[in-house]
Amino acid sequence: MEFVREDGTVVGHADLEPDWEPAIEWSRLAGLRTRGVWAPEAQAESALEPLWHSELGEPHLRGFRVALKGQDGAAWHQDFSTQYFGSLARAAAVPLIEQAVLGADDRLLFRALAYAQHPARPQVADAFTAIDQPQPLAIREVSRPSLMAASAPAGDTNADDFEVFLPRVVLDEASTQTAGAGDVETGGILIGHLGRERGNPEIVSEVTALIPARHTVGLSTKLTFTSDTWTDVRHAVELRAKGEQVLGWFHSHPQHAWCREKKCPIEAQQRCSAAIGFLSSDDIALHRTMFPRAFTVALLMTHSIRGIVPRLFGWRAGFLEPRGYRVVAPPVITTEICHATPTAV
After folding, report:
1. In which region does residue 73 sit, left (phi positive, over 0), alpha (psi from -120 to 50) or beta (all else)?
2. pLDDT digits (tens, 9 = 90+) for 236-268
C-alpha cells in the first residue's frame, strides 16, 4: 500500500496481508444465486487476479477479481474495488501519525499495489493427509409469491440483496430479551432455512426461530459466546427436527446505559445516529469468525431513548452492511359468526 497526500506526494508504504475469505465467500454466494452452484471450499478451484489501474498501470490496482470454478466445470467471477482494503489502510496509517509524518487531521489517500509472488519452496510430504469433507448446503423449494404476500419490507433495502424473511415473533422475542438484559448485552442464534423457487437459482433466507444464548458472557459493551452456546443450538435444532441451519445471530446494544454513563443530554440522545444501530469492531470480528458464510446475517437490537430499534446487517461484497428484510406477520385467526335470523315457533 502506498500513502499519498492530496497533492500526490508519497509519504509512506506498508506491506499488507489481506483477509481474502470474505471476498471468496461472496463470490461463492454469487455462483449460488445466479447459477444455482454451491462450490464447497474443498471442491472449488479459486484464483485471485489483479485488475490494473487504467492510468497508473501495473503494479497499481483498481481492484481484484475472484474467479471460481466448481467440480461441474461451471466458472464465474466477482470483481472488487480497492475499497476492500479500506480498513487495512486506516490501520496501516496509524504508524505514520505516531511518527509525526502525518497530523491526526491530515487527509490521506492510499493506492493498492500488487507484485508477482515468488514460487514457494516445495514442501516434504507429511505422513498423513487431511481431506476436508464439507457439509452439503441444504436448500429447499419455496413459494416466493406466498412469502412476499405474507410479509412487509423493513430495514435498509437494497435491490441487489436476496430476501431475508424474519417472523414478527422473532423480532418480539429479541426485543423482550433485550429489555430484560438491562445494562448488559445479550444475544442468541438465528436458525432457519435457505430456499428457492423451482427453476430460479436466486435464494431466499427464512429465519424460523431465535435460540437465546444462555451461556454468554455479557458486558455493557461486549458479548462473548461460549462453547456451551453451540451445544445448546445443536440440541435445539435436533429437538425441533425441522432440518434448520444457522443463518446468523442476534445481539443487543444497551445504548441507554452508555448515554447514562456519559451523562449525554436528552437532546443529544434523541439526535444520536448510533441509536439506529451499528456494528462495533468486536461485532464485526465475531461475525467474521463465527458466521463467515455470505448468506448469514446479524440482527442488532439497540436499546436507546428511542426505544428498542431493530437493524439487520449482512455481507455485501466482502463487507458487513446494513440490509433490508421482510417481516412475516403471524396468520390472522378468525372465528366465523352466524347471522341467522331466529324463526318463531
Report:
1. left
2. 999 999 999 999 999 999 999 999 999 999 988
Q: Does residue 335 sit within a domain?
A: no
CATH number at residue 265: 3.40.140.10
Exposure string (b/e) for 296-315, b if CB count within 10 Å is 16 or more? Answer: bbbbbbbbbeeebbbbbbbb
| Residues 33, 103 within the same domain | yes
What secondary structure, in 3-state letters, does 40-71 show? CHHHCEEEEEEEECCCCCCCEEEEEEEEEECC
In the chain, which stretches have pLDDT less than 50?
Answer: 334-335, 337-345
Give the Å distances, CA to CA, from 115 to 10, 15, 16, 119, 133: 19, 11, 12, 12, 33
Is residue 285 included in any domain, yes or no? yes
| Whether residue 217 sits in one domain with residue 150 | yes
Rounded Cα–Cα distance for residues 244 and 208 (Å): 8
282-338 pLDDT, tens per residue?
A: 999 999 999 999 999 999 999 999 999 999 999 999 999 999 999 999 765 544 544
Q: Report the pLDDT value the prediction gives residue 135, as an integer from 0 to 100.
A: 64
Range of the domain at 106: 2-111
Q: Is position 341 within any domain?
A: no
**CA 330 to CA 194: how far, in whole Å?**
20
Q: Are 275 and 259 contacting, i.e. CB atoms less than 8 angstroms apart?
A: no
pLDDT at residue number 2: 92
102 and 152 share a domain?
Answer: no
- DSSP code, position 276: G
**What's the rounded Cα separation, in Å, for the pair 122 and 128?**
17
* Residue 106 and residue 17 share a domain: yes
Number of domains in the chain: 2
Measured distance CA(21)–CA(319) in Å, rounded? 11
Q: Are residues 107 and 143 in the same domain?
A: no
Q: What is the CA radius of gyration of the chain?
A: 25
What pTM value is reported for the model?
Answer: 0.87
